[in-house]
Amino acid sequence: MREDEKKDDPRILVVEDDEDAREAMVALLQMKGYRAVPAGNGQEALDYLRRAPVPDLIILDLWMPVMDGWQFRSEQVKDPRLKNVPVIVVTALSDRADVDANEVIIKPVDVNRLLTTVSQYCRREPTP
Amino acid sequence: MSATDARQQAEIETLEQREARAMLGADVSTLQTLWADDLIVNSTANLIAGKEILLEMIKSGRLKLRTYERRPVSIATFGDLVVATGNEVSQLVAGSATIKTFVSYMNVWTKRSGNWQLLARHVGLIQREKPELLQ
Fold it and tell me: What whole-number distance in Å separates Cα of residue A115 and Cα of residue B45?
């Protein structure tokens, strides 16, 4: 846990294979008072989720190696512990029809839109 | 090329280097002046951020550079709009390591109330090296 993190800060899992995008989103969310945790693909995310507390929100890329975002969603909904965790998909795909998620944000991601959407799914307002 | 275009190109070349030095030094007050309030930056992370968020990231130390070199390749003038393109090499501080990154960029400068300001910036990744531990 970071020094400035609090136990009740909303917890967000960022699942993204692109290192730049993943680290930038994690840094942004941490700056705004969330406990953001990175995962490099769907399998890493599942491994983390099976041994960690259930997060308040998952931010999910679709195109990833090892396990992509669609496979991750299919595994997530099979797990009673994880199935109700809201998911924001971030993708370069413009066809939203085949994406099963609470929200879809198209890349490049507008940071203000991302933060607004995240705040709607987390339990309290983040640090201003 | 007209004398006006040549003068504008020289001005922007100076500003490009000034802005790069301000980024390296986390000089927020200079960046406040050089960046338009409605600045739009599309980074290699595919995140579109504005002035407020970017300054917040610099102030908080989450966007910190150890080295930063900018090499403009072309500066094109369109009246009160100038487009600078080139490449950059930087070492981003990430925890206890640095990551050396090569990018291409396009900066759009606009003249408002007699002063040039950075209005838009797009950065494309050329290559990123493996993290190196800070000495």
Answer: 16
Distances (CA, A) of B123 to B9, B11, B22, B56, B89: 21, 22, 18, 19, 12
| ipTM attached to this prediction | 0.86
Residue B47 near chain A (CB below 8 Å): yes
Separation in Å, CA A67 to CA A17, A52, B18, B40: 10, 19, 44, 33
* Residue in A21, A31, A112 closest to B62 by CB: A31
The model's pTM is 0.89
The pair of structure tokens assigned to B47 is 């995140």
Which stretches of chain B score pLDDT less than 70?
135
Q: Strand, helix or coil at A20?
A: helix
Residue with tokens 């990231």: B57
Using CA coordinates, name the residue in chain B closest to A27: B62
Q: How far apart are CA B57 and CA B62, in angstroms?
A: 5
Residue among B82, B118, B88, B73 at smallest CA distance from B9: B82
Residues A108, B47 contacting (CB under 8 angstroms): yes
